[in-house]
Every structure is written in C-alpha cells, then in structure tokens.
Amino acid sequence: MIVRMWEATVATGRFDDAVAWVRQDLVRRALLTEGCLSAEILVHEGTPESVVLLTRWDVAPVFEEAPDDALFTRARAQHLQTLRPEIG
User: Fold this and answer.
1) CA–CA separation, 13 vs 80, rounded Å?
2) Whole-prediction pTM
3) Is 1 within 8 Å of 30 (Cβ atoms)?
4) Is residue 32 part of a domain?
5) Mean pLDDT of residues grouped by 10 in the chain (88 residues)?
C-alpha cells in the first residue's frame, strides 16, 4: 500500500476555508481517482495552522493537488510505502 501525505500551511485567517476546500475538493477528487482506497484529514490549529490529507492507494497515485494560493502559504506531497513491522 502507498500512503500519500499532502501537507499545507494555512494562510492567516483562512483555516475554515482551507479545511472546507480540502473536504469538498481535494478529498472528492482523490476518492474518484482510480486506485484510491481511503482519505483522512488531519488538522493542526496551533501556530501555524496546517492541514494534512492522508490518502491510501493500491497503486502508485496519479493525482495532483492544485491548492488555492489564497488559502495556503506552503504545500507539499510525499509518497510513503507501508512496511509490516517485524516482531520477534
């Protein structure tokens, strides 16, 4: 399984708008993309405020985010491969 982590720092005063955009646009597009198994939103309401979207894929994701520059000051994505822990 591949986990794609998209993380963005929210522009000052735009937290609610940023979370709404992630929910209504980014999550919807991810879940409609072939190979996407699930999506989970994580938020940090401290300083600076940020939003993380974790998506899980059964294939290498072919998915691009197009964040609204008015909502975010920085955004980046990483692909992470899951490994099973070795016990014993």
Assistant:
1) 31
2) 0.86
3) no
4) yes
5) 93 96 94 95 95 92 76 89 84
- Does a structural domain hold residue 86? no
Range of the domain at 42: 2-60+73-81
Residue 43, in any domain of the structure: yes
Give the pLDDT of residue 59: 85
Give how many domains the chain has, as a whole number: 1
Classify 45 as helix, strand or coil. coil
Tell me which residue of 60, 2, 59, 53 sits closest to 29, measured CA to CA: 53
Q: What is the pLDDT of residue 60?
A: 78
Residue 26 three-state SS: helix
Tell me whether residue 23 is in a domain: yes
Residue 7, pLDDT score: 94
- Could you tell me the CATH number of the domain that includes residue 44? 3.30.70.100
Helix (H, G, I), strand (E, B) or coil at 71: coil
* Rounded Cα–Cα distance for residues 82 and 58 (Å): 11
